[in-house]
Write a structure and sequence with these properties.
Distance between the termini: 52 Å
Number of strands: 0
Order of helices and strands: HHHHHHH
C-alpha cells in the first residue's frame, strides 16, 4: 500500500515542481499542494526520485537555465527567470551540477 501511494505522491510532487520551478516553494506549501505532511512528502519523493525535493528543484532550475543561456539572455536575467535569488545563486548550483560556470557554458553554446 505505501509503495503505491508513495509513488503516486512522489510523481505528483515531481509534476508540481516541474510546473512551479521558478516560484519560491517552501516545504510546507509543497506538502499541502500534494496532500501530505512535510515529512511524508520528503519520504515519498526520495523513495521515488532518489533525492530530496529541493535537490530535484535545483536540477530543474539549472536545466531550464541551460536552455535560456543558449538563447543569449544575460545570466542575471536567466537566474531570476528560473527562480534563483540572483546570479551568484545560479552560478553556485550551476557549477556544482554542470561543472562550469554559466558564463563558460553560455560562451560555448554561442559558438
Amino acid at each position: 500500500m505505501w509503495s503505491r501511494q508513495g509513488a503516486t505522491h512522489g510523481l505528483r510532487t515531481v509534476e508540481y515542481l516541474n510546473d512551479a520551478f521558478a516560484e519560491r516553494i517552501p516545504l510546507d506549501h509543497l506538502a499541502r499542494a500534494v496532500g501530505l505532511t512535510s515529512y511524508s512528502v520528503l519520504r515519498a519523493f526520495k523513495r521515488v526520485m532518489g533525492i530530496p525535493p529541493h535537490a530535484y528543484l535545483m536540477q530543474v532550475r539549472v536545466e531550464r537555465a541551460k536552455n535560456l543561456l543558449q538563447s543569449c539572455l544575460p545570466i542575471a536575467a536567466v537566474a531570476l527567470r528560473v527562480g534563483f535569488a540572483d546570479q551568484s545563486h545560479l552560478t553556485r548550483y550551476f557549477r556544482r551540477l554542470v561543472g562550469v560556470t554559466p558564463a563558460v557554458f553560455a560562451r560555448g553554446a554561442r559558438r
